[in-house]
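This entry is listed as follows:

___
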Amino acid sequence: MLHKFTQLKKEYDSYSVSLIPKHKLLRETSLGYYGSAPADPVFNFFRKMELEKKKSFLDLGSGDGKVVLIAALFTKAAGIEIDMELIKVSGKMKKKLGIRAEFLREDYLMHDLSKYEILFLNPDQPFYALEKKLRKEMKKTARLVVLGNLYRPLNMGLEKNRIIDGTSFSIYKN
């Protein structure tokens, strides 16, 4: 697993460097902003939370697919992304790295979230419309992982907050 993660990190680092001269390292999409998640903290967080013991993982707004492919090293993983360019990047990385994962091009507000045990969100803004959907569809045993501090669900219980390599991860239950 560590070898595959090192390979993944190298590929995504190269991809990120290629975006700098194009001024696309951070960019607007039709539904928000794209910014890549940090690989090492995400990997280390998934190890500490024992993601391999979970049956399914879904990244809501999966961007370039990095988080999904890291999660797929541990469990069955999928990502939902609306931006076609980012879906293409995810597919290319998946193929290049030989990692099994699923990428769906759609709006996650229209997707059934009830079948996932872990839902992941790296928000670019507070998003309370999503919270309504989560409250309605998340099973009691499911958990929402929020990267960073831009969004704190108002009506979900904070189960745990962890700082990994300087990056904040919060786990919420329904």
In short: The mean pLDDT is 95. The longest strand covers residues 157-164.
